[in-house]
Amino acid sequence: MQDSIHFFSEEIEFHLDKEDSISHWILSFVSAYKRECGEINFIFCADDYLLELNKEHLSHDFYTDILTFPYSEPGKDPIFSDIYISIDRVKENATTLNVSFEEELHRVMIHGILHLLGYDDHSEEDQALMRKKESEALLLRSFDV
User: Fold this and answer.
1) Sheet holding 37-45: strands in order across?
2) Nearest Cα to 101, choosing from 44, 52, 56, 54?
3) Cβ–Cβ < 8 Å for 46, 11
4) For the chain, is the Cβ count within 10 Å smaller at the N or the C terminus?
5) What is the pTM of this model?
6) Mapped to the 3 state alphabet, what secondary structure does 68-130 carry?
7) Are β-strands 4-10 and 37-45 bridged in parallel, bridged antiparallel, or unpaired?
8) pLDDT in tens, 13-29
9) How many of the other CB atoms lie within 10 Å of CB of 113?
10) What is the reported pLDDT for 1?
């Protein structure tokens, strides 16, 4: 299955609005980087669920908004991945940043995609570049937020 974006929820009730539009936006964004999307699964969950994944897979004992698990080799196409997003964190971050929930959710989603495209956020410089790329991606949405 090529060019597939799927949306799931795990241990929470959550439904993503405008799934088709968001899928198209993400696929277009990946294509703009001359990359090919295989299958990317977005799994929306609660803080505690993501905390357990963070502990289990990264040995990190703290809450996070996103964990990206790439299943294809770095730089190789097509891209396969599971991207877990804490809806709790996204809601809290949206409030803290004074942006809409949808705006923050889309930013976090594209953050995971940027990781799959080879971007990192380990240094302050890397973080600044990712924020810039996230903002550019948000401007490419062709649907109302």
Assistant:
1) 4-10, 37-45, 79-86, 66-70
2) 44
3) yes
4) N
5) 0.94
6) EEECCCCCCCCEEEEEEEEHHHHHHHHHHHCCCHHHHHHHHHHHHHHHHCCCCCCCHHHHHHH
7) parallel
8) 999 999 999 999 999 99
9) 27
10) 46
Which residues are registered as beta bridge partners of 80? Answer: 39
> With a cut of 50, which residues of the chain have pLDDT below it?
1
Q: Which amino acid is at 106?
A: H
Element (H, E) at 62: none
Which DSSP letter does residue 67 get? E
Q: Return the DSSP state at 17.
A: T
Position of tokens 């929470």?
Answer: 12
The whole-angstrom separation of Cα 38 and Cα 27 is 10
Phi, psi of 104 (to 5 degrees): -70, -40
Under 8 Å between Cβ of 108 and 65? yes
Cβ neighbours of residue 124 under 8 Å, at least 6 residues apart? none
C-alpha dihedral over 48, 54, 59, 60, to 10 degrees?
-70
40 sits in which H/E element: strand 37-45
